[in-house]
Amino acid sequence: MDHDELAHWSKRAADWARDYHASLRDRPVRPDLKPGDFRKLIEAPVPEAPEPMEAIFADFVRLVPDALTHWQHPRFFAYFPANAAPASMLAEQLANAMAAQAMLWQTAPAANEMEALVVDWLRDALGLPGEFTGTIHDSATTATFSAVLTMREKALGYEGLTAGLSGGPRLRLYASAQAHSSVDKAARLSGIGQDNLVKIPGRADDPLHSMDPNALDAAIRADLAAGLRPAGVILATGGTSIGACDDLAACIAVATAHGLPSHVDAAWAGSAMIAPEFRALWAGVEGADSVVFNPHKWLGAQFDASVQFLRDPRPQIATMGLRPDYLKTLGAEDEVVNYNEWTLPLGRRFRALKLWFLLRSEGLEGLRARLRNHVAWAREAAEAIAALDGFEIVTGPILSLFTFRYRDEAATAALLEAVNRSGRIYLTQTTHAGRFVIRVQVGQFDCTRDDVMTIPEVLAAEAARL
Questions:
Q1: Domain 101-349 has CATH 3.40.640.10
Q2: What is the rounded CA–CA span in Å between residue 242 and residue 430?
């Protein structure tokens, strides 16, 4: 394929994309496939000779879409969304065409300086203090891992980077019992060890299921008395399972009193903070050292785009940064920011472009309107489900996420399987307080109230069949 052919096929792809999105409501949200089914359809030896693009594209259209779970489906209510607003998709096409490797300022000045701008835009949109700066990672997992590595090195006086951890003090991390599994992964891969990740219980009768700050303080004091070395505290705003929100002000005050850095995982719920009325959920966030949220979830930025805000980036740069001679910017070494030194990979995509396009094309008011609708519709759906015979709301809506169960665990599991097999909506499960429950999360970019109110309709129909 040459660039003239690329122009032709890019137009064909754009037309197909338009028709695909227009047809999503007519497709099942999730395909009815078993593992290995799709591989059988595409099984073939590696091509020795070129094949015509007409044949390749036709096979794509015939085979691939029907074997996908449609994350852009307006009745996708599982996990969290991975939205792709049209302006973001367009920006990704342009970024792909330029194919810049934005590892350094000098390898992509526009990408570097646009990243600084859109991070500032998002900081201001979320109401964070102006002292915060930040960078764009691929995912919140990488951002949290970077924050935990920084906690480790601060606790070790930055000697772990060179001397290693062998023979050193036993470090401890503290997180809510509602923390995402990426926190466990960070504890594992940082060398701190999952056994040294202390899960702090929640406050009794707290509708937001916050970590108990008194229990956090007691755990830190107990570890100090045992000769262990606390390294940091990881907090949640909008936990993945049920949307739990830690009392940031109280928990950060405990961390600060013990001289410990704090990281806030607001990967999903952080987007809601563009609407001031939701900011009570993360009151006290200005005291955190690190905050992550994913515009690729609820704001509509094409995956992947995860923004980490840092009150002071220097500790993380001291931990993550490495600058051999071949990566130096001669003549301007002290004048540029190289964002690869803030994160794990050296290579970096031009992720800022889709955020620049998205924020300009939608505006904060357009994005706020969508989020407010999702929250209102989720509450309405929860009320409708609560009114159904045999259904119980287990955790009430936190923003647009809530959980419910049907009769007992076996019936709940059978209902979930039936609902997802129907293809009309897609839901997922979790466990809360030892009970198997079904999650509902409203947030797909193009969903409507009618789409959301399909949830109680489908539940009632499938429950009747059971």
A1: yes
A2: 8
